[in-house]
Amino acid sequence: MNIRITLRSLRLFTPLIALALAACAPAPIYKVSAGTVAVTPMQVAHSPEQYAKGEVIWGGSVIDVRNFPDHTEIEILAYPLDSSQRPLTNGQAVGRFIAVYPGYLESFSFPGGSLVTISGTLNGSRNEQVDQAAYVYPLVSVTQSHRWTAAEMRAGHPDIHFGVGVGVGIH
């Protein structure tokens, strides 16, 4: 069998291939509103007053869970999000933040290293220590959150690879 791919046919199928691959990715879990600011926790930490009361959609890896009488705080190492708002942990971290939940959350439900995405409102900042260094944590009052399962993190990542190479076959 001899398959001949012309430049013209490649141009015709490229949009279809791109559409098919895009259809594999899950939709974002939170709607971006007019009040949503596209900044990283690190940017907010440098000038928290500039982003006061802005809405954010951030995600990352759980570092610690602390319960208080009327709320729970989860410290999160933030990562950029993909188009489905899943944390991209293979990239560079973009700061840390504290997600503040009303009421009590069981720390067992958010073990260290678990991946989360939150939607909420910036509500000030807090100066703390990370090891021996001073650090400014943006505080986010959480309105919605999602803890990602391993299956959800794999979803939408097809095992399709395109490339150019040389193949050897025996006839």
UniProtKB/TrEMBL annotation:
Signal peptide positions on this chain: 1-20
Superkingdom of the source species: Bacteria
Keyword entries, A-Z: Lipoprotein, Signal
Database matches in PROSITE patterns: PROKAR_LIPOPROTEIN
Designated name of the protein: Slp family lipoprotein
Organism: Dyella flava
